[in-house]
Amino acid sequence: MDVVKSGFSFIKVRLQRRHRKKFRNCLRNLFFVIHHIFVEYGWLILGILTVFHFVYKKFILSFYQDIQQRKELERRKKFDAELQEAYGDRIRIAREKAQQELNNKVVEAYKHLKVKKQKYLQGIMTSSRMSNVNIDPYTFVTNLTKSTPVVVFSKSYCPYCKNAKRALSTFRMRDDLYKIIELDEREDCDKIQDILLQLTGARSVPRVFIGGKCIGGSDDTVAAQKDGRLEKLLKEAGTSRF
């Protein structure tokens, strides 16, 4: 029995050695073949690999990346659709609630600004009325016409006053050199018109003062604009910038 086992072991060892030798021979032959191929066709193989690398980088890789991007985009769209389907109602309700809250805040802010503006205007009107009452009309008219180069005593609804102001608006003048007094917005309207009657011989409006002198009313101002006298008067008063 021991002899049989030893015989099988010997045969096994011989077979293993023979297989190892064959394997080494195969590797050696393969190496020689590869070496021969590279020696004979090395530059050709290198050129083919270079061309393949260029084509891969230039076309194949970009095409593959486009495919991957499309797949990713489709996956995201599918995910968004599933998310919208699952939580669409919740998202819509949340958006409507947020929009309603924003609208309420805007309305509240608008109301607050409106109240603030009304208080501001009331304060201005109150101070203006107080100043109108405290200042003597004659002093007010004389000081204003002497200190301001161009003064127009007008009424906001009067069409003749609008014609005179339109004629003056064709010339560029600084705001501090050109004043328009709307008498219908003042409490001392009648008193100022009486003063204008004393100074100019007429209490009708408009009364246009240039350089401290009254040039007349609407017709006089428009006529002076047409014949060039108005431009000359404004230049002499130093108010018009041509």
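[next item in queue]
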Amino acid sequence: MQLKHLSVTTTEGYANRPVGTQALFLAEIGKEEESRNLSLTLRAFRDYQGGRRPSGPGARDLLAFFASVERQLEELDVTAPVVKRSDQEVINLLAHRAGALHLGLANYCWFLDPDKGLCLKLADSADRSQPLAGMCDSARCPQATHHSCHRDTWATAALSGRAFISKIGRGQKTERARLMAEAERAEHIVAAIDAAAHGGPRGTDQ
């Protein structure tokens, strides 16, 4: 998210500079995002190997992909059993999926298929080149996953929601119901993250 924000705001200062300079800057930002996404995808795969699963609507698909990567690594071990596998070999197998990764406020978006992007459907967007982070509903989108690194954000949202509810008068039934639904949604996501983190290396989504 920080890199995306940087690429938007900082390039405004390049508006009066030569196109080549601006293009070089954007290319550097792109490389940083690519490196970050590869690192995050590798970390998610290592979590999977250690029995810490993702949760969310897209978890089942991500787990299936990680299982396929693991099978490919096992096949390599059969053909060359004495060779120690490096992270780079794993990264090569993860690269395509990492290229589809977009960071939400409290989720990962694996934007592989625009037709499945809930945000694009909600916005009826003509531009289908990337997801709309501001309209993300990660509890419903089939390409969204939640990981342990997102837990604190959802836990804070749940606590804040409950705090607001306690201050609302009983006469404000509509607002109270809305906040209650949001708090319960956040609590459900936290519970799913916790359950998935202890679900074993071959589990499925909650």
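[queue empty]
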